[in-house]
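> call design_seq(struct)
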C-alpha cells in the first residue's frame, strides 16, 4: 500500500499537512458547502470568497451577481440572500452567478485551494466524494469548519461518511481524530445532526427550512465539486 493512501481529519483554521500532492475536502454542512453544492447543482456559477473585502471587487467584475452569505450569522449589508441552501434551491434566476461568503466554510475553501486540490462536500454528495477519493492515490485531508470553536455534529457526520469508506478501501488513518470520528459517527443516523448547536441557532432564528432541506437531500447527488481559479465547479473526476 502506498504511503500516500492516507486520510486525516482536521479542524479549520488548521489545514493539517495539506499540500500540492494531496486532496483536501472542505466541509461546512450548516450551511456553506451545502449552499455552494446546491448552487452548482442548479447550474449556477458559484464563487466562494474568504472575506467581504474579497466579495466586493469580484461583484464588480461579474454580471449581475447574487450576493449570498452571512458573517456571524448575519447577512451583510447589500447582500441578497442568507447562506441558505433551501432559499438557493428556490431561486429561478439561474443566469446570475453566486458570490458566497460565510464565517467559516468559504474562508476554509479559499485557503485550502491556495495550497492543494480542494473539493467542497456536504451530506448531499458525501458518498460521491468518498467514491472519487478512493479512486485516487493521493493523501486526503478532510477539513471541517469550526463554529464558535466547536467541531459540530453535522460536520462530524459528514466527515465520517467520507472517511469510513476510505478506511475500508485501505487508506490508513493519519491522525487519531479519523478513528475517533469514524467509530462514533460512521453508522450514526441522519438525524444525529439534530444534537448540534447549529440546529439550535437555526431554530431560534426561524431558519429550520434549511435543516429540513439538508435532511431531505442526503446523498441525492452523484458528483463532486472542485475549486478551480476561485470558482466551484463540477469536477471532471466525478
Amino acid at each position: 500500500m502506498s504511503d500516500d493512501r492516507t486520510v486525516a481529519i482536521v479542524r479549520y483554521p488548521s489545514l493539517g499537512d495539506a499540500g500540492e500532492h494531496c486532496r483536501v475536502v472542505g466541509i461546512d454542512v450548516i450551511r456553506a458547502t451545502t449552499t455552494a453544492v446546491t448552487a452548482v447543482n442548479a447550474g449556477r456559477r458559484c464563487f466562494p470568497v474568504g472575506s467581504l473585502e474579497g466579495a466586493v471587487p469580484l461583484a464588480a467584475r461579474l454580471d449581475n451577481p447574487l450576493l449570498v452569505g452571512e458573517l456571524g450569522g448575519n447577512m451583510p449589508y447589500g447582500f441578497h440572500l442568507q447562506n441558505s441552501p433551501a432559499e438557493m434551491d428556490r431561486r429561478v434566476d439561474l443566469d446570475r452567478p453566486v458570490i458566497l461568503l460565510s464565517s467559516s466554510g468559504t474562508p476554509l475553501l479559499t485557503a485550502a485551494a491556495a495550497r492543494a486540490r480542494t473539493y467542497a462536500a456536504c451530506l448531499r454528495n458525501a458518498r460521491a466524494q468518498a467514491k472519487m477519493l478512493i479512486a485516487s492515490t493521493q493523501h486526503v485531508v478532510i477539513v471541517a469548519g469550526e463554529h464558535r470553536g466547536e467541531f459540530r455534529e453535522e460536520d462530524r457526520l459528514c466527515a465520517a461518511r467520507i472517511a469510513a469508506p476510505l478506511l475500508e478501501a485501505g487508506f490508513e488513518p493519519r491522525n487519531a481524530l479519523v478513528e475517533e470520528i469514524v467509530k462514533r459517527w460512521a453508522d450514526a443516523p441522519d438525524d444525529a445532526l439534530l444534537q448540534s448547536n447549529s440546529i439550535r441557532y437555526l431554530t431560534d432564528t426561524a431558519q429550520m427550512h434549511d435543516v429540513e432541506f439538508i435532511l431531505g437531500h442526503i446523498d441525492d447527488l452523484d458528483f463532486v465539486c472542485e475549486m478551480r481559479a476561485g470558482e466551484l465547479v463540477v469536477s471532471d473526476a466525478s
